[in-house]
Design a protein that fits this description.
Protein name: Lipoprotein
Helix content: under 10%
Order of helices and strands: HEEEEEEEEEEEEEEE
Strand content: 35-45%
Strand order of the largest sheet: 9-10-11-12-13-14-15
Number of domains: 1
Shape: globular
Number of strands: 15
Structural class: mainly beta
Distance between the termini: 34 Å
Keywords: Signal
Number of helices: 1
Radius of gyration: 18 Å
Largest sheet: 7 strands, antiparallel
C-alpha cells in the first residue's frame, strides 16, 4: 500500500490550522509540495483513523491511469470533550510513485460518538467508479443512514449523488431518498409498517453542484 511521509502530514496540519484560523474549512489548497509514497511517519497528535483496519481507499480519481488515495485522519486527542474530529484527505498519485495533495475536508465525517445507541456512525470510505463515496449509519430503534458521492471534475471536487434513509427496527417501516445531483432525478421509496412499498420518481431540476470544500454533513445544503 502506498504511504505518505511525515512532511506531508506536517503540511496537512499547517494548512488545516491556517484554514480554521481564517474561518474557512473544507478548502482545496494549491501549490502544495508533492507527497511521497510513505505516510508511516505521522506527526504527533494526528493519525490515520481505523475501524479494525486503517481507513484508506485507493483508486483512480482523476482519470490518469494512476492510483490515487483517500483517507480519514483524526486527532489522537480531541480539542474538546468527546470523540476527535475526522478529516478527509485526498491526494493524487503520479507515475513516479509520489502524491500531491488535492483537498482537505473537515466536515464530511461525523465523530465516533455521534451515532446514537448504535455507536460509531462511520460505515465506509470507498472509491467507486472514479468517485469518493462516504457512508454513515446510526440510530437506535429508528436507524438512519446516508451515502454521499464526490467526483473530481472541472478542476475541483463536487457532490454528485446523495442517498439518505431511515427504518424502524420494530416493523417494516422505512423511507429512502436517492438523488442524482447531476441530472436532478430522484427516487423516494416508502414502505409502511405492513410492508407495502410505494415509489415516487421525479426531477427537482438541476441546481449548482455543491463543492466538497463547502459540504457539511450536518446540514442538507445540496
Amino acid at each position: 500500500m502506498k504511504k505518505i511521509r511525515f512532511l506531508a502530514f506536517i503540511t496537512f496540519v499547517f494548512l488545516l490550522s491556517a484554514c480554521s484560523a481564517g474561518g474557512e474549512s473544507n478548502a482545496a489548497f494549491e501549490g502544495d509540495p508533492p507527497l511521497s509514497s510513505d505516510y508511516s511517519f505521522i506527526p504527533a497528535g494526528w493519525g490515520v483513523a481505523a475501524k479494525g483496519d486503517p481507513i484508506v481507499a485507493e483508486g483512480d480519481l482523476n482519470k490518469d491511469g494512476v492510483q490515487d488515495v483517500a483517507m480519514i485522519i483524526e486527532q489522537s486527542e480531541s480539542e474538546a470533550e468527546g470523540a476527535p474530529r475526522r478529516v478527509l484527505l485526498i491526494a493524487f498519485g503520479s507515475s513516479a510513485g509520489e502524491f500531491s495533495l488535492s483537498i482537505i475536508a473537515d466536515k464530511v465525517f461525523m465523530r465516533a460518538d455521534e451515532g446514537g445507541v448504535w455507536g460509531d456512525p462511520f460505515e465506509s470510505l470507498s472509491i467507486d467508479r472514479g468517485s469518493v463515496v462516504v457512508s454513515h449509519y446510526g440510530g437506535s430503534n429508528w436507524r438512519w443512514y446516508s451515502k454521499y458521492r464526490f467526483r473530481y471534475q472541472d478542476d475541483d471536487w463536487y457532490l454528485i449523488g446523495a442517498t439518505k434513509g431511515e427504518h424502524f427496527t420494530g416493523d417494516e417501516s422505512r423511507t429512502e431518498e436517492d438523488y442524482n445531483l447531476l441530472t436532478g432525478d430522484y427516487i423516494i421509496t416508502t414502505t409502511n409498517e405492513e410492508g407495502v412499498v410505494s415509489t415516487e420518481k421525479g426531477n427537482r431540476g438541476k441546481k449548482p453542484l455543491v463543492k466538497l470544500g463547502s459540504f457539511d454533513i450536518t446540514t442538507e445544503n445540496w
